[in-house]
Amino acid sequence: MESSATTIADSKLAGPEYKYGFTSDVEMETLKKGLNEDVIRALSTKKNEPAFLLEFRLKAYRKWLTMTEPLWAQVNYPPIDYQDIVYFAAPKQKPQVSGLDEIDPEILRTFEKLGIPLDEQKKLANVAVDAVFDSVSVATTHKKKLLEHGVIFCSISEAVQEYPELIEQYLGTVVPIGDNFYAALNSAVFTDGSFVFIPPNTRCPMELSTYFRINTEESGQFERTLIVCSEGSHVSYLEGCTAPKFDTNQLHAAVVELITLDKAEIKYSTVQNWYSGDPITGKGGIFNFVTKRGLCKGKNSKISWTQVETGSAITWKYPSCILAGDGSIGEFYSVALTNGLMQADTGTKMIHLGKNTKSRIVSKGISSDKSTNAYRGLVRIGKNATGARNFSQCDSMLVGSECAAHTFPYLEVGNDEAVVEHEASTSKISEDQLFYFESRGIIREDAVAMILNGFCKEVFQQLPMEFAVEAQKLLTLKLENSVG
Amino acid sequence: MTAILEIKDLKAGHSGLEILKGISLKIEAGEVHAIMGPNGSGKSTLSKIVAGHPDYQVISGEILFHGKNLLDLPADQRARLGIFLGFQYPVEIPGVNNSEFLRMAYNSRRKEKGLEELDPFDFQELLTEKMQFLEVDDRFRNRGVNEGFSGGEKKRNEILQMAVLEPSLAILDETDSGLDVDALKIVSKGINALRKPDNAILLITHYQRLLDYVQPDFVHVLAQGRILKSGGKDLALEVETRGYDWLTAVA
Ligand SMILES: Nc1ncnc2c1ncn2[C@@H]1O[C@H](COP(=O)(O)OP(=O)(O)O)[C@@H](O)[C@H]1O
Ligand SMILES: [Mg+2]
Hints:
The complex is a heterodimer of chains A (484) and B (251). Chain A has helices spanning 4-13, 37-46, 51-65, 105-113, 143-148, 156-162, 164-170, 181-189, 431-438, 444-460, 465-479, and strands at residues 28-30, 89-91, 127-133, 136-140, 152-155, 194-198, 207-213, 224-229, 234-242, 249-252, 255-260, 265-272, 285-296, 302-309, 314-317, 320-323, 329-338, 343-352, 358-368, 372-381, 389-399, 404-413, 419-428. Chain A is an alpha/beta fold.
C-alpha cells in the first residue's frame, strides 16, 4: 500500500469534488473473504460474544440464505458477489483500549483530517463522538461525563459485553432479523456501531454522534445502531459518513433501530457523504443499502429523522417510524442530492397504529448531471388509528436536463377518520433566475447556493447549527460543476 | 467629462436574429433619458445587453461605462460597478429570503469598492429606512424574492433594490407598467431620489404619465431596432397624442 501522504495528494489532484477520498495506512486484521456459518462463528468468537448473540446471527444468516435482493427500487447495478466481501476488518490493536495512546496514531490522524478530533484536548466540547473505523468502534469521547447522567453511549460491541441484558431485550425488536435481505445480512454479520441508552426523565446533556469511516477496499461495512430513549427523555443523535475513493464498490448495509417510550423523543440526523464513484465513468462508490426504523412504543413519544444524503453510488434507504403509542409523532426531513451517475431511491414509511398519531414528511430531491433521484414513501394508517394525520411534501429540483426525478407516494388508509395531505412540486433553476442574481452583483455559484439553501431550508432548520452549515457547504461544493 | 454610458453603433441580437440594428446613445452624469417605442422594438433587449445577459450576442459596436469597455465584463461585475437593471418581468426566486438577497447584493458592491461588508443588523437598519421611504410593507422583508408578489409589488421591489444599491446607472424597463396612481407616485419618488449629479437614469416606458413625475432631459423613440428620433420631453407628449406611426412611416 502507498503511504497515506501520497494518497492524499493524489486525491487532491483528482479534483475538489470529494475531499475525503484518501485512504489511511493502518495495520488491519481481517477475516478471509466470504460468508458461511464458520465465518460467523469466528467473528462472534473474536468479539467474545454471549451465546444469545451468536444464535441471533446464525438465525439471521439462515434466513438470509432463503431471501433475494429487493429489485423494486429505481436503481441499477451489477450483481453483488457476497462471497467476495471481507466481513470483518479491524485495526490491529490490543482488544481493550483504555486510552487513546493505544490507538494507531494513523487512525487518530484520519479522524482529525475529517474534522473529528478524538483526543482529550481537541475533542469537540458539546458533541460526544463514537468513531467507527471499518468494522469497529475505535473511540468514544465524553463517555464518563455522560455516565454521570446515567446516559450510556458506547460502541455496540462494548454494550454487548457491559450491558448484555439491554442488548438482548431490544436488539432486533424494531427491525426483525428477516425484515429484508440487507437487514438479514446485517443481523448475521454486523461488527460494530453505536449503542445509546437514555434513562427515564433525562435530557441528554450533549449531542451524541457517530462518525463512520470505511477504509479497507474489500470490506463491507455492516454497522448496527441501537438507541433506546426511556420515559420522558430526550436525545439528539448525529451520524456522519465518508469513505476513500476506490474503483470497486463497497457495500454498506447498516441497520439502525430506535425505540422511544412514553413521552420520549429521539432526533436522529444524518449527513451522508460516502464516496459516490467517478462522476463520468461511474466506477466505484458505496452501495448504501440501509434499514433505519424507529418505534414510537410509548404514548406521546416522538421520533424525528433528518437526513442530508449527498454521496454514495447508490442509496437505498427509507428511515421509517412505527407510530404504535397513542399520540405519538413521526417526522422525516430529507435532502437527497444526486450528481454524476449517482442513483438514489430514498424516502420513508410512516406506519400509524395508535390513535391520534401524527406524521410529517418533507422531502427535497436535487438531481443534476445524469443522476436519478427517486422519492418513495408509504403512509399507512391502521384501522385503529383514529384521528391520525399525515402531511407529506415532496419537492424535486432538476439542475440541467439529463437527470431524472421520480416520486412514488404510496398511501394505505384503513379508517375514514384519518386526514392525509400530499403536496408535490418539480422545479428547475432557470437561466433567468441566475441572471437576476448576476444583475444584482451576485456571482453564479453564490446564486445557486442561495437557491438550493432556500429549497432545502425546511430540512436544514432541523439540523443542529454546525451540521446545517456543513450541509449547506456540501451541497454547494457538489453542484459547483453541474451549473454552467 | 466622460459620459456614464455611451453606446456606439450597437448591433446585437439573439440566436442569429438581429434585434438592435445600430443604436447610438450617450448619457451624461446627472441626466435622465427616456426610451419609448412600440412593443417588440428592442427596448428590453437593449437593457439586457447593457446589463450583460449572456443569452444575447453583440454583433458589432461598443458600450462604454464611465469610459470603460463593458462588453468583456460578465453581468455580475457590471452590476458591482454600478449598473442596475429594473426588469420588465422580475423573476420569482422561491425560498430565497428577500432581505438576505439584498444584503448579499449590497455587500457584493461594497466589496468591489474595497469597503467592509455590512453585518445583518446594520443592513436591516438601512433596509428599514429605504422601506419606509418607499412605503414598502414590512412583510416583504422576509418573503421569498418576488415570490407570490403581484405585478405591482414586483415593480416596487425592483425600486427598493435600486434604492438600496444606489447604482450610478439605473435602467428601468417599464417599471411603471401595471402600477396604480399611488404606486406610480411612490416609484417616481424612488427614481427622483436617485437623481443626483453623479448618477444617470434610463427610463423605458410606454406612457407619458411616468414622465409627468420624473421629468426626462431627453426622449428617444426606438422602433424596429433603431432610434428613429430623439428630442426633449415634448417628444414624449407628441408620441402620446400621435402614436408611433408617423415616425415609423418616415423610416
Ligand atoms: N430571448 C429572445 N429570444 C428570441 N427572440 C427575442 C428574445 N428577446 C427578444 N426577442 C425578439 O426581439 C424583438 C424585440 O424584443 P424586446 O426587446 O423584448 O422588445 P420590447 O422590449 O421593445 O417590447 C422581438 O421581436 C422579440 O421577439
Ligand atoms: Mg420590453
